[in-house]
Amino acid sequence: MFEASLAQSAILKKVLDAIKDLLNEANFECTDDGIKVQAMDNSHVSLVSLELRSDGFEKYRCDRNLSMGVNLASMAKIMRCSSNSDKVTIKAQDDNPDKVSFIFESSNQERISDYEMKLMDIDADQLGIPDTEYSCVVKMPSAEFARICKDLNQFGESLVISCSKEGIKFSTSGDLGSANVKLAQTTDADKDDAVTIEMRSPVTLTFACRYLNHFTKATPLSSQVQLSMSDEIPLLVEYRIGDMGCIKYYLAPKIDD
Amino acid sequence: NSLQLELLTFFCQH
What secondary structure letter does DSSP report for A120? Predict the structure, then answer.
């Protein structure tokens, strides 16, 4: 038996919006600790790692570890049937379920709807991600990061990110011309609009702008985003999901051919 | 011209 309830379906809707364009399907690994999803996009360039801890749920029960193979477009269709303020309960009866139920309850309890979704067998390898001490860790407003990725995507396919003690710079160029956005470190680190940089050594890396734009679908989840970078290894883009977990995106860099 | 690397170059497969 698996059962997990969230007071408001809005969080789950936002989480799904943050992954459904990058992934077609994924295994939801449910344990006593919570729900984890790890999956690569079809081209094996980026990876999504989602964690929702059990203590962040209003109610959570997982008698046996189970893996639910989910078609994310199907789950998104079902989640769209809920109102943001609805309480949502995810329920699977068996230890090896072939279907999962979503129950939505309005705040006044006057409307209760349930949707059953068929699960899939997904044969996906789990990747081992080594612990890394990154050369630069940048925290910045998530809306600013989204704006930069969207604006610069108009100019070129590749985005160069350079980070030094002075600040972080995003650059691109293409047929139209070139573009640069520089952000300086701010003095007040506690505010939502703060830009903070922890640097061991400066880095310059190139990434496909298209994937960065996919990652920014997580913007509604958190006011801040964290970028962790070291030369010649994948970029880590991290959004917190309140106090209950986080969504991490990894993106392989581009190198000069 | 730049070459897009794959994640499998960096992460090990279980």
Answer: B
Q: Tens of pLDDT along A46-73?
A: 999 999 999 999 999 999 999 999 999 9
CA distances (Å), A112 to each of A77, A105, A108, in order?
17, 5, 10
CA distance B8 to chain A (A): 7
Sign of the torsion angle spanned by Cα atoms A79, A82, A87, A93 = negative
At residue A102, what is the residue type? F
State residue B14's pLDDT score: 67
- Give pLDDT, residue A94: 77
Among the partner-chain residues A126, A233, A255, the one whose CB lies closest to the CB of B3 is: A255
- Provide the shortest C-alpha distance from residue A257 to chain B (in Å): 5
Nearest of A202, A210, A213, A219 to residue A254 by alpha carbon? A210
Geometric angle at alpha carbon A94, from A60 and A18, rounded to 5°:
55
User: Which string of DSSP letters, residue by residue, matches A81-112?
Assistant: TS-TTSEEEEEE-SSS-SEEEEEEE-TTS--E
CB atoms under 10 Å from CB of A60, counted, come to 21
* Low-confidence stretches of chain A (pLDDT beneath 50): none
* Tokens 């640069």 sit on residue: A180
